[in-house]
Amino acid sequence: MKLIDLKGQTLGQWKVLSRANGAYDEAHWWCRCLCSPNCITKIVSGAALRRGSTTSCGRLTRFRAAWGVHRKRLAEIASIQGSLARLIRRVAALVETEPRRRNA
After folding, report:
1. What is the mean pLDDT of residues 30-56?
2. Which end of the chain has fewer surrounding CB within 10 Å, N or C?
3. d(CA 44, CA 63)
4. CA end-to-end distance (rounded Å), the chain
5. pLDDT, average across residues 22-42
6. CA distance 12 to 86
7. CB of 47 within 8 A of CB of 54?
8. Which of 51, 52, 47, 56 is nearest to 29 (CA)?
9. How would residue 43 be classed by pLDDT, with cut points 50, 70 and 90?
10. Which of 9, 33, 5, 7 is nearest to 18 (CA)?
11. CB-based contact 37:14 (threshold 8 Å)
């Protein structure tokens, strides 16, 4: 099987640096994840890179999952705040329309 040279290509968040030496049945590559400037360099299977079954080191996926949870909580808080604001407006409207009682 002919080797597909991936050196220099960016596949997902992986930047392929060079071919990894070792006793592998298929080509493996040294790749740097581009999710942050100081992220990891790792040996990744060439087949997994081409298939797209690996797209990053996983840090970005974990961050997005955590952000999704936080975003959901923020939406819940905003909903509660909206309900509270509506309740305050209704009470204020009732107070304004009710006749004032004079203290005797």
Report:
1. 89
2. C
3. 21
4. 102
5. 86
6. 46
7. no
8. 47
9. very high
10. 7
11. no
Q: How far, in Å, CA of 28 to CA of 46, rounded?
A: 5
pLDDT value of residue 7: 92
Q: Which amino acid is at 20?
A: A
pLDDT at 15: 94
3-state SS string over the chain? CCCCCCCCCEECCEEEEEECCCCCCCCEEEEEECCCCCCCEEEEEHHHHHHCCCCCCCHHHHHHHHHHHHHHHHHHHHHHHHHHHHHHHHHHHHHHHCCCCCCC
* Side-chain half-sphere CA neighbours of 50 within 13 A: 12
Token duo for residue 89: 């407006």
CA-to-CA separations, 8 to 1, 13, 19, 91, in angstroms, rounded: 21, 13, 10, 65
